[in-house]
Amino acid sequence: MGENKERMLAGDWYLPDDEELGAESVRGRELCERYNATGVRQAAEREKVLGELIGSLGEGVRVRAPFQCDFGTYITLGDGVFVNFGGVFLDTAPITVGAHTQIGPNVQLLTPTHELDHDRRREGWEKGEPVTIGSNVWLGGGVIVCPGVTIGDDTVVGAGSVVTKDLPAGVLAVGNPARVIRELG
Question: pTM value?
Answer without folding.
Answer: 0.96
